[in-house]
Recover the amino acids of this structure.
């Protein structure tokens, strides 16, 4: 099993493709998404949600901090965007611990803003510019993360392995 993988993503379609593969293998995982503004974190989340059957819009919950999505099969996805979080302690007031139940998928943009109040991630995704596309590094930190990363490593429908 690999504990990290790296891909070059050519375009938005590749980023959505990574999200679709992630959707197949990551339920019950906590996924941290790192990258500067405009790198594709929300696009990747959109790919996850579309692959899970969510057809409505997916926007970054910058002002609400978390957007819950209940899927038709009663599974839950929580999309967090902590960019505007002033103090990590604000997460306590949101009841953040209730979201991490081991069954839901939690996608967290800007997780460094919630240090001390977020659980250890199963997976961390780092997206950075690699013009004309992006470079994606995926790190696994738990057994669940390793299983997801292993499944992702066998997929060649997006980007190219580095």
């Amino acid at each position: 099993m690999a504990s990290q993988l790296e891909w070059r993503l050519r375009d938005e379609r590749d980023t959505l493709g990574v999200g679709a593969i992630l959707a197949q293998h990551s339920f019950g995982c906590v996924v941290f998404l790192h990258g500067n503004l405009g790198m594709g974190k929300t696009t990747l989340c959109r790919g996850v949600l579309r692959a899970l059957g969510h057809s409505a819009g997916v926007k970054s919950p910058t002002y609400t901090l978390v957007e819950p999505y209940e899927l038709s099969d009663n599974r839950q996805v929580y999309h967090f965007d902590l960019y505007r979080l002033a103090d990590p302690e604000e997460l306590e007031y949101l009841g953040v611990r209730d979201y991490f139940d081991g069954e839901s998928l939690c996608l967290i943009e800007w997780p460094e803003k919630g240090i001390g109040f977020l659980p250890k991630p199963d997976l961390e995704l780092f997206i950075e510019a690699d013009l004309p596309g992006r470079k994606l590094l995926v790190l696994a930190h738990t057994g669940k993360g390793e299983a997801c990363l292993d499944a992702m490593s066998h997929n060649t429908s997006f980007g190219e392995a580095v």
Summary: The first strand starts at residue 4 and ends at 9. The first helix runs from residue 12 to 25. Strands lie at 4-9, 30-34, 66-70, 76-81, 105-109, 123-130, 133-140, 160-161. The two ends are 17 Å apart (CA to CA).
